[in-house]
Amino acid sequence: MTITTISLPISIRDVTKTYGRTAALDNVSLEIATGEFITLLGPSGSGKTTLLMVLAGFIRPDSGEIRFGDREVTLVPPHKRDIGMVFQNYALFPHMTVAGNLAYPLKLRGVARAEIDARVARALDMVQLAGLGERQVDQLSGGQRQRVALARAIIFEPRILLMDEPLSALDKKLREQMQIEVRHLHQRLGMTTVYVTHDQREALTMSDRIAVINHGRFRQIDKPQDLYERPNNRFIAEFIGESHFLPVEVRGGTAYLGERAMRLAEPPRHQAAAQFLVLRPEKLKVIDATDGAGLNVFAGQVKEFVYQGESSLLYVSLANGQPIAIRQPAGSAPCVPPPGAPITLGLAPADTIIVPSEEA
Amino acid sequence: MTAAVGSTTRTDKLAPRQAGRNAAELRAQERAEQWMLGGLALPALVLISSVALAPIVWLFWLSFRDAGGMTLAHYARLLHPSYLISLASTFELSFLVTIICILLGYPLAYVIAQARSRIAAVLLLLVLFPIWTSLLVRCYAWLVMLQRRGLINTWLSDLGLIDRPLQLVHNFTGTAIGMVHIMLPFMVLPLYASMRAINPDYMRAAANLGASPVKAFWQILVPLSLPGLAAGIVIVFVLCLGFYVTPALLGGGRVMMWSMQIERNVSYYGDWGAASALGVVLLVLTLAILWLLGRVIGFDKLTGAR
Amino acid sequence: MLASPATETQITHRRRLWLYAIVSLIVLFLIAPSLLVVPLSFSDSRYLAFPPPAWSTRWYSAYFGAIEWREATYVSFAAAILTMLLSTTLGTLAAYGLQALRSRWSVLAYGAFTLPLVIPAILIAIGIFLFYAQLGLNNTLTGIVLAHSVLAIPLVVITVASSLKSYDMNQEMVARSLGASRPRAFLTVTLPQIRISVISGALLAFITSLDEVVISLFIAGGDKATLTKRMFNALRDEIDPTIASISTLLIALSVVLLGLSQFVQSRSKTGT
């Protein structure tokens, strides 16, 4: 199905939705570019699904404005918004065949019978399910159903695609495979896609941009790499990737871990006095005690070694008892000192990230 | 006002609802949708309220009025012995029928719940069959069977067991037999449902721990089946209280149920005051019993099992 | 086979034969009376002797030949069909609306729907009678249909609502996201999937109306007398053997409807 889809940008302005006394969405705004793949990432209850439902029209916000391109759709009912949507549980129609499911949106739009058949065949092809048109829904595996749901959402060539944790019901291998397939589909069709997930790895894999949302507000909106390397605050740093945190004091443009000043590539971006040093396990390196020139050095005692296949985690206890961990890839002959042995770890200034806590 | 790409928006307090864009239109749309959905249920509600519920309220009102204005005379008249006897008969019959239904219904429900699915399905069908058969057909069948020259008497005398026909119908006995026949399925079905819901692991555990089958039955199964039993008792008893057809046909005029008093006052005497008072009393009794039994066994079990 | 265990407590069938014997008698008690009527309807005798001395179909001729019975049959069936149509439509919409609305009001409304099942029929009957007297609806088909619907709608609502509870409403959301309006989504996606319970509700409504006695006694008179009213009066006055033939036909109808209802429900287990 090679379509020249004219996609649309999405504009979300000052959208608020309150349930009783809690704000599911708190005056959020976001501009999404044409053809962009943006992920709404957050823990459960953060408001990400609520925002998606507001975009789809199934939840009416208390106030705010939604635009698809030039058209304001805030008051437009869902069935007139012309968007594609994939739900968490696929929600395929069990009383129709696969082909019936795919033909449904086309029939609603009055497409001619012959054309429907042709497009259904092409859609099945596109998601690698050719020939399965006459199957009943309950005869398909989870992965196949997901693909049918996807095909059904794009067969009528919507300008915008919304996806609500569509892969969460799949097992790990299948999920990772589908992530790539969805990404390829997006590259091929180019429609603006808003993807909701709580899985940060999934977000990092698939997105052009990630909007991290918590308690109904956006915390940081950035490209995946920027989000990972330069989190705005502890919540983001904690939510994306794994890290350990050491409390530091920021004064005079530097961060102090206890009495020691940290070597930083740039001054801390925030001025709060109490902040945190983010230690990403894969950024730490095992060094000799004397080799710490130019690095931030951490000395401690080995606690535990955890083998994880393609990499391993070494838990280390610092002098004041705080635990940190270092990840070493399997390929580079990891260092495995016995528990209790002293060890020195080094962190490059460029990788030394200082973040405030969330409320800063 | 719009946030540029790549930055975050922060507000320190909730934006007031009223001041938001589109707030009024969105609220209006939401309300319209609620009304539309609720409106789907409206025709049914209006029909039931106007045809059945409102007239009952009117009856309630009538029970306190006569030619002279507001009065309690209609209720006072209910203390007359004939009415009290009616009340006693009604309760007596309802109790008796309920108890017999428990005695007959429990073993039946138990066997169906334990049977293999094929046999259970057949048995259930046989239990459902009377419900789908017309009430009048069943009353007729009992009339035929129980009359002086009916089947039972004919067989019994042919077998030499009796020399005079037994008076089995047009009296309390006949009415009770007929009512048991009508009510038994309503006892069996909820009982069966609750027995089916009992996790078989409980019985296995009991056997494993050393309980004999009889002990396991009384100590495990019976207590766990009580919600269904309670539902069955409630349904049967309440139905019996207000039942009209069977006592009217099989009672021969000797069994004066409360419902028949109501009918007589309307059709025979045209005394709406009396009839409404009788009706209100019946309704209050019914609701009181439902509430009481609901208190005793938990309302959630009542509505769930129904 | 008798030695095989009957229950989890490993008691064998053999040791419970007494139980099976008792239960068989109980089942016989439930079934036999209705079935006894059937051979009786073919009896030649005026008196209900069993076994009948001679066979004939005179009571069937009496039934089909008498104009009052024919008219009553017509009224009953017309009322039953109209009640079925009205109750099923209103009841299904009500169950759907309440489910989709999910507000505090729905609990209240649901309670209101179950009231006609809780209130004694005799009370509802005299209430309707009084009400109809003011509107001149007594002894009219319209009146009968509305009154029967009051009893049938709760049954439809309960039946449909219970199947809606286990239905995934998300599918309607999906349908709407694909471009279907709410009514369209209901008709093309939801209704096909709940049709089993809708049909069951319809059959229940039909039989409830056909078998309804108490209310009909009051409001179905004159030339709009229902079959049930005429039968009741006949049973009260003198036992006319014609009733045997009518009963047999009604039993046959019950068997068909029950079979239909079971068939429809069994199909729900085999896919869709």
Global mean pLDDT of chain C: 87
- What structural category do the secondary elements of chain C indicate? mainly alpha
Number of helices of chain A: 8
- What is the general shape of chain C? globular
What is the top-level CATH class of the largest domain in chain A?
Alpha Beta
Q: What is the percentage of strand-forming residues of chain C?
A: under 5%
Q: In the CATH scheme, what's the topology name of the largest domain in chain C?
A: MetI-like fold
What does this structure look like?
Chain A is α+β, with helices and mostly antiparallel strands and 360 residues long. Chain A has helices at residues 48-56, 98-108, 113-126, 142-154, 172-189, 200-206, 224-229, 234-239, and strands at 10-19, 22-32, 37-41, 63-68, 71-72, 83-86, 160-164, 192-197, 209-214, 217-222, 244-251, 254-257, 260-261, 274-279, 285-287, 296-307, 311-318, 323-329, 342-347, 353-356. Chain A folds into two domains: 10-229, P-loop containing nucleotide triphosphate hydrolases (Rossmann fold, 3-Layer(aba) Sandwich); 234-356, OB fold (Dihydrolipoamide Acetyltransferase, E2P). The mean pLDDT of chain A is 89. Chain B has one domain (73-305): MetI-like fold. Helix content of chain B is 74%, strand content 1%. A two-stranded antiparallel sheet of chain B has the order 1-2. Chain C is mostly helical. Chain C has two domains: 1-32; 66-267, MetI-like (MetI-like fold). The mean pLDDT of chain C is 87. The interface between B and C is large, with 86 and 87 residues.
Can I get a quick summary?
Chain B is an all-alpha fold and 306 residues long. Chain B has 14 helices and two strands, in the order αββααααααααααααα.
Topology, pairings included?
The complex is a heterotrimer of chains A (360), B (306) and C (272).
Chain A: E1 10-19, E2 22-32, E3 37-41, H1 48-56, E4 63-68, E5 71-72, E6 83-86, H2 98-108, H3 113-126, H4 142-154, E7 160-164, H5 172-189, E8 192-197, H6 200-206, E9 209-214, E10 217-222, H7 224-229, H8 234-239, E11 244-251, E12 254-257, E13 260-261, E14 274-279, E15 285-287, E16 296-307, E17 311-318, E18 323-329, E19 342-347, E20 353-356
Parallel strand pairs in A: 3-8, 3-9, 6-7, 7-8
Antiparallel strand pairs in A: 1-2, 1-4, 4-5, 9-10, 11-12, 11-14, 12-13, 14-20, 15-19, 16-17, 16-19, 17-18
Helix pairs in contact in A: 2-3, 2-4
Chain B: H1 23-62, E1 65-66, E2 69-70, H2 73-77, H3 81-114, H4 117-132, H5 135-146, H6 151-158, H7 172-196, H8 200-208, H9 213-224, H10 226-242, H11 245-250, H12 258-267, H13 272-297, H14 299-305
Antiparallel strand pairs in B: 1-2
Chain C: H1 17-41, H2 58-65, H3 67-101, H4 104-118, H5 121-135, H6 141-165, H7 170-177, H8 182-211, H9 214-219, H10 227-237, H11 242-267
Helix pairs in contact in C: 1-11, 2-11, 3-4, 3-6, 3-8, 3-10, 4-6, 6-8, 7-8, 8-11
